[in-house]
Design goal:
By secondary structure, the chain is mostly beta strands. The protein is built from no helices and 19 strands. It has one domain. It is 0% helix and 41% strand. The chain starts with 15 loop residues before the first strand and ends in a 7-residue tail after the last strand.
């Protein structure tokens, strides 16, 4: 994981960032969470929801293994997520998930769902995450840094499925272009 500390005036959503603008920072042991920002999405935290990535301002309902995700900084390699809190089942406190790597679907994948894995397939990209300031980007096969994150509407106004690389053909008005950042909203 590479991180830089410059501040950004803006980041064009769904865009490519020149490689020269991305620098690296030494790793730290801090843990952090990810937050989604876009139209009417004011910094919703990321949840693990039965293997899928979800952003919302409350815990996604109807999931069996679900919880807010905390990531650990690593100098390189996958972003490993663990729950911010245990859940209690039948009086026993245990983590709802453990050591789950965040992935985005690969360029040839027909699936757009961002999720978690412990054993990435060739269609799951776990090791191309890059920081641009507080913005999370993904390096594509051409070496460009991209932010192709989308929030897909659900039947709940305040809960969105986290998707990757939606094109016009896929978009039926259910997708909102978002950025993913490593800092909570200032009012949090
Ligand atoms: C959750 O389950 C209830 C009852 O089965 C159902 O009415 C509701 O639509 C479900 N919500 C989601 C988000 O799946
Ligand atoms: C919780 O306890 C009930 C009753 O003993 C049992 O049927 C159920 O399977 C338990 N749930 C889990 C997740 O262990
Ligand atoms: C969470 O669950 C694990 C495994 O059951 C346990 O070792 C740990 O102490 C729990 N943590 C908290 C904060 O309860
Ligand atoms: C996005 O999808 C297009 C095909 O729809 C593909 O050509 C491109 O490589 C994908 N980009 C990323 C970064 O996955
Ligand atoms: C990961 O997946 C490969 C291919 O399916 C399998 O051979 C391997 O045992 C899996 N490893 C783990 C740790 O699950």
């Amino acid at each position: 994981m590479r991180v830089i500390s410059i501040s950004l005036a803006c980041l064009f959503l769904g865009s490519v960032v020149p490689a020269a603008q991305v620098a690296s920072r030494s790793s730290s042991s801090d843990s952090y969470s990810l937050y989604a920002f876009g139209d009417n999405i004011g910094g919703f935290p990321m949840y693990y929801s039965d293997g899928n990535a979800v952003v919302g301002n409350r815990t996604p309902p109807n999931a069996t293994n679900v919880g807010k995700v905390s990531f650990t900084h690593d100098s390189s390699g996958p972003m490993v997520g663990n729950p911010t809190a245990n859940t209690t089942v039948n009086g026993t406190s245990k983590p709802p998930f453990e050591n789950q790597q965040l992935f985005v679907p690969g360029p040839d994948s027909s699936d757009h769902q961002i999720g978690f894995t412990q054993n990435a397939t060739s269609n799951q990209v776990t090791s191309k995450f890059i920081w641009y300031g507080h913005f999370l980007l993904v390096e594509n096969d051409g070496g460009e840094y991209t932010s192709l994150f989308y929030a897909k509407k659900t039947e709940h106004d305040d809960i969105f499925s986290l998707q990757w690389n939606i094109t016009d053909d896929d978009d039926e008005g259910d997708f909102i272009s978002i950025s993913m950042r490593g800092l909570p909203p200032s009012n949090a």
